[in-house]
Amino acid sequence: MSTTKKDAPSTCEMERINWIEFREWVPAKIQTVLLPLGTLEPHGVAPNGTDILVPVAMAREIAPRVNAMVAPAVPYGFTGILDAYPGSFTIPEDAFRGYVRAVLAGLAKNKFKNIILLNGHGGGQTAVLSALAQEVGRDTGSRILVVNWWSYCSDVTLDVFGEDGGHGAENETAYVMAIDPTLVQRERYNPQMATALPPPNTWSAYPFPSTIMLYREGEGYPKFDLEKAKTYFTKVNDKIARLIQETIKKWDMAGV
Ligand SMILES: [Zn+2]
User: Fold this and answer.
1) What is the 50 CA–ligand 1 centroid distance (Å)?
2) d(CA 160, CA 150)
3) How far is the CA of 55 from the centre of ligand 1 (A)?
4) Where are the domains positioned within the chain?
């Protein structure tokens, strides 16, 4: 039996494949890798690792559709104003930047032409990642896309829930429920746990007084509807798979 006749490797996860099989697939038949990145910080009644669990599930679900491998996640991130809560971590920005730069350079060295960062965490982390994408892309000749799913899919949030979301709010909580409903402890929820994010230059606080941060006053409170959660999971993944496919197609068309 020849492995070259199969249309997929035995696994798309980089920690589960051996070097002999990896060599057969990358870069001859697979040029794309998905890299989930997150952090550990509180999310209302969803897990502290929501920002890790979401992009890992997303990567596994999307990988076959975009003919990609999935790299092991970068779980520790640059957290910010919620790192005072129990079980949270933050990695100093320079250490995070240097570590992620080395991970990206390693993926390029392993001959992935397209490196797709599925980022689960906002705050300062998004700016670090877009700067790194430019730096490493320029240095290595690889093509790098950074996706901040919760912002990119805010239209899906409006479509499925009829209102905007937030950090640890309806959108993130729903995505986690779709992965595993037992990860969300609804019985511990109280709407008083949510605070609307302040408009720029009005107020700021450390630690932020709530672990549920609403993008818009009065919108995004979790409602724990499992059916809607499943629809949301599917629509978010579909939209992100399309973005990846279209971006690669346009890179190819442009010859970059
Ligand atoms: Zn989050």
Assistant:
1) 6
2) 13
3) 10
4) 3-247
The alpha carbon of 173 and the centre of ligand 1 are apart by a number of angstroms equal to: 9
- Tell me, in angstroms, the distance from the centre of ligand 1 to residue 19's CA: 34
Torsion-angle region of residue 87: left (phi > 0), alpha (psi -120 to 50) or beta? left
Q: What pLDDT is recorded for position 1?
A: 47
172 Cα to the center of ligand 1, angstroms: 6
| CA 254 centroid distance within chain | 27
Q: What is the pLDDT of residue 5?
A: 56
Neighbours of 195 (CB within 10 A): 16
* 39 CA from centroid of ligand 1 (Å): 8
Q: Which residue in 31, 39, 11 sits closest to 107, CA to CA?
A: 31
Q: State the CATH class of domain 3-247.
A: alpha beta
- Mean pLDDT in runs of 10 for the chain (256 residues)? 69 98 98 98 98 98 98 96 96 97 98 98 96 98 98 98 97 98 98 95 96 97 98 98 98 98
CA 249 – ligand 1 centroid, Å: 30
Looking up tokens 């949510």 gives: 194
Q: Is 158 exposed, middle or buried (0-12, 13-18, 19+ CB in 10 A)?
A: middle
Instruction: Provide the pLDDT for residue 174.
Output: 98
Question: What spacing in Å lies between the alpha carbon of 121 and ligand 1's midpoint?
Answer: 5
Output the CA 170–ligand 1 centroid distance in Å: 11
